[in-house]
Design a protein that fits this description.
Strand content: 5-15%
Radius of gyration: 20 Å
Number of strands: 2
CATH architecture: Orthogonal Bundle
Structural class: mainly alpha
Number of domains: 1
Largest sheet: 2 strands, antiparallel
Distance between the termini: 66 Å
CATH class: Mainly Alpha
Length: 121
């Protein structure tokens, strides 16, 4: 009981979260609701081929889109609406923001290419 009285103030005044915002976004991207975003959008959001098949038009591919340059609003809309292929995830806006921030940080070098090219024009 004395130990609890000593630890309780430390737990109440502690500023640190169990996991960081980046780690939370990474965890959600890896497994938001049973299907990983990376399975279709790639490890960094670059998009990848989900499946290849043949039909009367020849070889076809179903590819996940590149989401690295999507805005937060685009991502919120994408996970909140129905698509032909992508499941609806029912993520909160805070969860989508964590994924968005994770991808922004993970793709910092890639995204800086576009920021630099837009600022020189």
């Amino acid at each position: 009981m004395r130990l609890l009285l000593i630890l309780l103030p430390l737990m109440l005044w502690g500023e640190e979260d169990f996991i960081s915002h980046y780690e939370y976004g990474e965890m959600l991207y890896a497994n938001p609701r049973g299907v990983s975003c990376a399975q279709c959008h790639g490890e960094s959001g670059e998009g990848q081929i989900i499946v290849e098949y043949r039909d009367i038009h020849g070889k076809q591919a179903l590819k996940g889109s590149d989401i690295r340059r999507d805005s937060l609003d685009d991502m919120i809309k994408a996970v909140s609406t129905y698509h032909k292929v992508m499941p609806r995830y029912y993520l909160t806006n805070e969860e989508v923001k964590a994924i968005y921030d994770y991808l922004q940080k993970k793709n910092q070098a890639y995204l800086s290419q576009f920021t630099e090219s837009n600022s020189t024009e």
